[in-house]
Automatic annotation (TrEMBL), chain A:
Domain of life: Eukaryota
Record field: transmembrane: 30-46, 466-489
Membrane topology designation: Multi-pass membrane protein
Gene Ontology CC terms, in alphabetical order: GPI-anchor transamidase complex
Protein name from the UniProt record: GPI transamidase component PIG-S
Predominant location category: endoplasmic reticulum
Protein localization: Endoplasmic reticulum membrane
Pathway(s) per entry: Glycolipid biosynthesis; glycosylphosphatidylinositol-anchor biosynthesis
Assigned protein family: Belongs to the PIGS family.
GO BP annotation list: attachment of GPI anchor to protein; GPI anchor biosynthetic process
Classification via InterPro entries: PtdIno-glycan_biosynth_class_S (IPR019540)
Annotated keywords: Endoplasmic reticulum, Glycoprotein, GPI-anchor biosynthesis, Membrane, Transmembrane, Transmembrane helix
UniProtKB/TrEMBL annotation, chain B:
Protein's recorded name: Gpi16 subunit GPI transamidase component
Transmembrane segment boundaries: 492-513
Signal peptide residues on this chain, from the entry's feature table: 1-20
Any single GO BP term: attachment of GPI anchor to protein
Annotated organism of origin: Phanerochaete sordida
InterPro entries: PIG-T
GO CC, alphabetical: GPI-anchor transamidase complex
UniProt KW keywords: Membrane, Signal, Transmembrane, Transmembrane helix
Highest taxon above the source species: Eukaryota
């Protein structure tokens, strides 16, 4: 046992450097190859987890932001032989006074004089000075009297108002106008507050009435909008409030105060909205009060009944109150109603009024001057809105880094920019074309803005992703980094050790 | 009275004008049942005379403007936008008891939502796209989740769901789309838009009785929208509401006497001014002993009929059993000619067995079609289909008409068969089924509740095939299947677990490869002095 317990002679130490992976060089190679793979994998990881953000044509959008539509407008002054002098002076005055106003509203104004050198067409108008008191518009010609001493200023005012009517509009008038859309649904509703209480209009010849009273207007407006028509009748459409009881000429009546008008539409009970398309809807409601509330008047701020029986809800539609109707409304009985609806429609669509004191000699509801002014105004609005939308998209994409930008968004933005360029190109020759292009741009840009794909990752932020991967990455990264640190320390120590004997040798 | 007389004359005059285009009629059938309940079936029918369904080939073109007086505009728009020829939507809650309540006035009584539509083909948009639009539009209109009747639930069982109206004769063929959503619940939010489609809403006429507080307290309730095209007449839309109310439960003295006020908490006070006909029919039980109040206008074919076209004073129809002091529930269950039971057995998470038991009490042989539209949540082993008739295997009694196997995560299975039931016999069908595993994201909220499976539909085929009477559908109750549900925190657990394992393996290997081993030479122990 003692022999066995005696220590064996120590075996010669193993030369570890002869095992391949124990040599310093190989060990460093192994670590390097790990890191090599990690670094190689990084782009792949980046690629598979990054959000698809295509670049948007930002510089083009920025360049376009500086540009504005500017439609050329030419006014030709004419007059009889004895008024030539007036014509001459007025022509300079016109150019001097109107140009700055027109400039600010996207028009490049020129004035001319003389006999029929130019045919009146879109963008080109005649002003004829005559011996008359009033002013009359016919087609694209304005016939105006020049008798009074201040007549010159009057001509200038009238021409300004008729060329850029929205300058003289108040804010509330502007608010009534609906947002531009190439297509509107017009929903005509005959609402009986309570048909079973008697005094109700049970049916109406709405199809014929629309054809008779509105068709001409639709045709004239077809440059701007298309219309889809629908109508319905409701027999129980209660109000959400109780109208105020009043006395009119010793008779019991009810009245709607201005506050009541704002809450008149009872959305909970009236099913007016058509949900079958995304086109904006303009509602025209013929409201028949129940026998308890009849007659129903619209009151002014003092609580006095007014003669008006209709009102416009801005950007929503028009309402007309019809007291004690016949039970079936024929086309001729609907004449007054549809004239009111017609006026309301024009107001909502932003067709400007003629300036005070100017009459139209045309059978149509509005003159070419008004239509042209509206086309120019809409083209300009669309152009500006579309530009704003495009710039908002660019800004938004910059702000939210998680927001994906797909091919469809990029394509829509590019198409919208192309359409805007086309509008700029078209505007000198035809404001109608410019309107069409700008409407296209508006549709495309809002479609890009509301693209549902852009919202996808808002609710799955990058932090979430890192949190999921952290258990793997953290625990793998720790030994990798530790190994590098260890190697660097070992390498520096080795270098110092190598240098020291040298230094010592030199000192000797 | 002085005012109502000229008014009613006026209305007559007006309706002669308006009926040239559109007409509206309403009808309520009240029938007392054997178990003391009362079935109330409301039907509001609007006929758009002379109208035709939109030609699907013209879908790309601009549509005519739509002018409606009585026809619901919101529904009309949906029908025209998708060129739908025939449409049936039912939203029901409860299990229809064919034994006690008899065959329903409105035959679509399957629990949950059921939507089926016939539409012409040949449009720019395919039938499937229009089916999708239709689902979504109706889901929006009725505040129901029928938008989720997607491809995974859509089938085309043309054998069972034949058009109820006519299909316009044209070169285009027509396609059927059908889907059921048995887990859909019907409630007030569905009734409100339904009432808004009625010309008189719930404010006058028979619709006054549609009081949500009572209807949704009923033993069974369901609503339906049925649109069909009738050649030569026009497009008809029928809005139907059906409820089985329980007066014994409402009354304090356990009597089955009922009146409108006791059932609906309302009576009819005003007539709907635009209804061309408005009538209430009360089925008088043949057993006798019942008194109908007030005295009806007419009686025919076992029904007491009331006209509510002109209402002078509130109408409150009721029925009394003066000789009864208390309602006695009948102990021996009444038997209808055909009884159907369907069950799913097996507690396994993978396998199960579907069995259908049909009892034919009739003294003659009955043929019936059998339809299963099963989501892929339950997959049939068709080879294991066994038919046993009164204890004797009789595989010859069933003939499979068509079978479309399911595609997991994509398409439901469709089984159409014809069964022959010998006279006075009980036939049992059994079939093995498997329950698939669902993807993590396919589970609904409240996944532990299980999945509702659509009812099977039987259509007893008449003895004489030429019988003009339409074949009537019989729905079985729905089934509930329990699928294997995961622990929903599982994905995170899996991530953590696998990350830990990978990190462990990686760390081990990496350390082995890069660790520097150093040999420590131990000095030999000093030799002992001896």
């Amino acid at each position: 046992m003692a022999d066995a317990a005696a220590p064996a002679p120590p075996s010669p130490p193993v030369d570890l450097s002869r095992i391949t992976f124990e040599s310093t060089r190989n060990r460093r190679r192994i670590i390097a190859s790990y890191w090599f793979i990690v670094i190689l994998a990084l782009p792949l990881w980046w690629r598979t987890t990054s959000i698809d953000r295509l670049s948007l044509p930002e510089s083009r959008a920025r360049v376009l932001a500086e540009k504005h539509l500017s439609s050329p407008v030419h006014v030709e002054l004419r007059g009889s032989q004895e008024q030539l002098e007036h014509v001459h002076t007025l022509h300079h005055e016109l150019a001097r006074w109107i140009s700055p106003v027109a400039e600010a509203n996207g028009l490049s104004f020129t004035a001319g004089q003389g006999p029929h050198t130019r045919k009146a067409g879109p963008g080109s108008y005649n002003v004829v000075l005559e011996n008359r008191q009033d002013a009359v518009v016919e087609g694209r010609s304005l016939h105006i009297g020049l008798n009074e001493p201040s007549a010159g200023q009057r001509v200038i005012d009238t021409v300004t108002k008729i060329l850029v009517p929205h300058v003289s509009q108040t804010a509330s008038e502007e608010h009534r106008v609906v947002k531009y859309s190439p297509r509107y649904r017009l929903a005509f509703s005959l609402l009986n507050e309570d048909a079973s209480s008697g005094r109700a209009a049970l049916s109406w010849d709405v199809r014929e009435a629309v054809d008779t009273y509105l068709h001409g207007t639709f045709d004239r407006l077809s440059v701007l909008h298309n219309f889809t028509i629908e109508s319905q009748v409701q027999y129980h459409a209660p109000l959400a409030f109780e109208p105020r009881a009043i006395h009119v000429a010793d008779n019991d009546a009810h009245g709607l105060t201005p506050e009541d008008l704002t809450v008149f539409v009872n959305s909970a009970e009236w099913t007016l909205a058509s949900s079958s398309s995304n086109d904006p809807v303009l509602h025209f409601v013929l409201f028949v009060p129940s026998s308890q509330h009849s007659p129903l008047y619209i009151l002014d701020h003092e609580g006095q009944a007014t003669t008006s029986d209709a009102f416009v809800l801005p950007q929503w539609g028009g309402i007309l109150v019809l007291n004690s109707p016949p039970s079936h409304l024929t086309v001729s009985e609907l004449a007054k109603t549809f004239h009111t609806f017609h006026r309301q429609l024009l107001t909502l669509l932003g067709v400007p009024d003629l300036p005070a004191g100017v009459q139209s000699r045309q059978a149509e509801a509005f003159t070419d001057w008004q239509l042209d002014a509206l086309v120019r105004q809409r083209a300009r609005q669309n152009f500006e809105n579309s530009k704003d939308t495009l710039n908002s998209i660019v800004k938004l994409v910059h702000q939210i880094e998680n927001m994906p930008v797909g091919e469809d968004v990029q394509g829509d933005v590019q198409d919208a920019l192309d359409a805007l360029d086309a509008a700029l190109e078209a505007v000198p020759s035809s404001s109608t074309q410019a309107l069409q292009r700008s409407a296209e741009a508006l549709t495309l840009s809002s479609r890009a803005f509301f693209n549902p794909g852009m919202l996808a990752l808002l609710y799955f932020p990058a932090e979430h992703k890192y949190a999921v991967y952290a258990p793997l990455f953290a625990s793998v990264a720790a030994p990798l980094i530790a190994a590098i640190v260890r190697e660097v320390i070992a390498w520096r120590k080795a270098r110092r050790a190598a240098r020291q004997p040298e230094a010592r040798a030199r000192a000797d | 009275m002085i005012e109502t007389l000229p008014l009613s004359l006026l209305l007559l005059l007006v309706c002669s004008i308006c009926s040239a285009k559109e007409s509206f009629s309403e009808r309520l059938v009240l029938s007392p049942n054997l178990d003391g309940t009362v079935t109330a079936s409301f039907a509001f029918t609007t006929l758009l005379e002379g109208a035709r369904p939109r030609d699907p080939a013209a879908l790309a073109e601009e549509d005519d403007s739509q002018h409606y007086t009585l026809f619901p505009l919101a529904l009309g728009q949906i029908l025209r936008d998708n060129a739908i020829t025939e449409l049936h939507l039912t939203l029901n809650a409860g299990k229809w008891d064919y034994q006690n309540w008899g065959y329903p006035e409105e035959e679509g009584v399957g629990t949950g939502a059921e939507l089926w539509a016939w539409m012409g083909e040949g449009a720019v948009q395919t039938a499937d796209e229009r089916w999708k639009n239709l689902r979504n539009a109706l889901a929006g209109l009725f505040c129901a989740s029928i938008g989720s009747l997607d491809e995974q639930r859509t089938t085309s069982p043309a054998l069972t769901f034949q058009p109820e109206g006519d299909l316009p004769l044209s070169s285009t063929t027509h396609a059927l789309r059908h889907g059921t959503l048995p887990s859909e619940r019907v409630c007030t939010e569905n009734l409100t838009p339904f009432l808004k489609l009625l010309p008189c809403k719930a404010r006058s006429g028979i619709a006054t009785l549609l009081n949500p507080h009572r209807l949704f307290d009923a033993d069974w309730h369901g609503m339906g929208v049925h649109v069909r095209y009738l050649e030569g007449a026009g497009i008809e839309v029928r809005l139907a509401f059906q409820a089985v109310l329980n007066p014994v439960r409402y009354s304090g003295d356990k009597k089955r006497d009922w009146s409108m006020t006791s059932l609906f908490d309302r009576s009819i006070e005003r007539s709907c001014p635009v209804a061309s006909s408005s009538e209430i029919a009360v089925r008088v039980p043949p057993a006798g002993g019942a008194i109908t109040e007030p005295a009806p206008l007419a009686r025919h074919a076992g029904f007491a009929v009331y006209d509510v076209k002109h209402v002078d004073k509130p109408i409150d129809v009721g029925m009394r059993w003066p000789e009864e002091t208390q309602f006695e529930y009948s102990l021996d269950a009444p038997q209808s000619a055909l009884m159907i039971r369907r069950r799913l057995s097996g507690s396994d998470q993978y396998k199960g067995q579907l069995s259908v038991v049909l009892t034919n009490k009739a003294p003659h042989e009955v043929k019936t079609s059998y339809l299963e539209t099963m989501p892929w949540l339950l997959q049939f082993y068709l080879h294991s289909l066994r038919v046993v008739c009164d204890g004797i295997p009789r595989d010859d009694l069933v003939s499979i008409v068509s079978y479309t196997p399911p595609v997991p995560h994509a398409r439901p299975s469709l089984l159409q068969a014809v069964l022959t039931l010998p006279a006075n016999s009980t036939v049992q069908l059994t079939m093995d089924v498997v329950k698939p595993f669902l993807r993590y994201t396919e589970h609904p909220p409240d996944a532990q509740r299980g999945w509702d499976l659509p009812p099977a539909v039987f259509v007893p085929l008449g003895a004489n095939a030429t019988g003009a009477a339409r074949l009537r559908r019989v729905y079985t109750p729905v089934l509930l299947v329990d699928l294997a549900t995961p622990d929903f925190s599982m994905p995170y657990n899996v991530i953590i677990m696998s990350c830990t394992l990978i990190a462990l393996v990686f760390g081990g290997v990496f350390n082995l490869l890069t660790r520097k081993f150093v040999v420590v030479a131990l000095a030999p122990a000093a030799p002992a002095d001896t």
